[in-house]
Amino acid sequence: MMLLLSYTGSIGLPNPLPLQVSPLLKMLLLHHGDKYGDGADRSWILGINPTGRVIVDIGLHDCNAVVDAVREGFIVHAFEPAPAHMANCHAKLAPEQRMDAPVAQLVSGALAPADWWTNVRKDLYKHRQNATGFAILYQAAVSDASSAGVNFTVGAGGSSSLHLSVEASIRLGKKDASRVPVPVIRLDDAVDEDLWLLKMDTQGNEAKVLAGATRLFERRTVAHVFTEFTPRLLREAGSQPRQVLEHLQAAGFFCFDLRDSRFAPWALDGKHSLDADAFIEEMDKNVEAALKAKRPSKWATTWGSFDDLACANVAKVWRPASDAGAAPGTYRTVAGPL
């Protein structure tokens, strides 16, 4: 049975202790994990050597997190289905800092993922050698199957979703929500390199994102996962909440929940159960209790209880090729710091 670790709780930790090998995880815990991608303090990324470190960011919103990562020297694969949100990336990144991925060709099969990577690796290796950040922009949703066009609910200036109806998005407060056709791509059809960080904020589609990255997790090393975890939205997407946790456990991750009920009433306190099923049940009960209040909070009537999870891979420890002495464009997994 999977255990969740709480940064607020006083609990015994596994050996090897993830915090001892992961400066990124230390920073995520220090900054409570909800800073990446929401326009708040992103100082946790400062001071970490970006050389060879690759981020996959799914769900960009204002694109500020991608911009900061590129400025610090990271390589970022950035996925965003909402046209207005992707426009933020084009506006904030200089032309020499970004390129648009050929999503239509990848989704249709006209361009094989292997051929795409043969071409793109040359550009990425150049940026790694020069220690300059770079973003590959994918105007697409991410799920467990690639498709040329799926209706996607978009709310201007806020969350967008692959699975939620317009009515459900209006319930979440997006009164201007509408359906627009967008391509959908699997990570396995887009990315083929070791990842320092996989970040997901997909409004409940996280289980399907992971299901579409099976080959990536098997063939490559994914060192960290930072994901939003919202049981109600996961169920509305046709998934079970524990599918996210099971996938991460099977891939060798230890996960820490980051939100704290002292500051975020939709989260649990540090004394919650460490068993995955019990953790999910307690999140559901948290919603039920809030709904019984004389004036239920908006979070209880809309998205429900949620948390952010920061996970470290202790089964496959990652190290950039430039540090390991590997040939250009190749990677290998070795024991060493994350």
pLDDT averaged residue by residue: 75
| Net shape | globular
- Which structural class matches the secondary elements? alpha/beta
**CATH level-4 homologous superfamily:** Vaccinia Virus protein VP39
Highest-level CATH class? Alpha Beta
Can you tell me the CATH topology?
Rossmann fold
Give the CATH architecture. 3-Layer(aba) Sandwich
Q: Enumerate the spans where pLDDT stays under 50 for 5 or more consecutive residues.
A: 7-21, 32-41, 322-338
| Succession of helices and strands | EHHEHEHEHHEEEEHEEHHEHHEHHEH
Neighbour order of strands in the largest sheet: 1-12-13-11-10-2-3-5-4
**Portion of residues within helices:** 25-40%
Strand content: 15-25%
Oligomer: single chain
- Tell me how many strands there are: 13
Biggest pleated sheet? 9 strands, mixed
Total number of helical segments?
14
Q: State the domain count.
A: 1
Quick summary of this structure?
This protein is α/β, with parallel strands linked by helices. It has 14 helices and 13 strands.
Element layout with pairings:
Layout: E1 4-6, H1 18-21, H2 23-30, E2 54-58, H3 64-72, E3 75-79, H4 83-92, E4 98-100, H5 103-108, H6 113-130, E5 134-138, E6 141-142, E7 147-154, E8 160-161, H7 166-171, E9 178-185, E10 197-200, H8 206-211, H9 214-219, E11 224-229, H10 231-236, H11 241-250, E12 253-257, H12 276-291, H13 298-301, E13 307-313, H14 321-324
Parallel strand pairs: 1-12, 2-3, 2-10, 3-5, 4-5, 6-9, 10-11
Antiparallel strand pairs: 7-8, 7-9, 11-13, 12-13
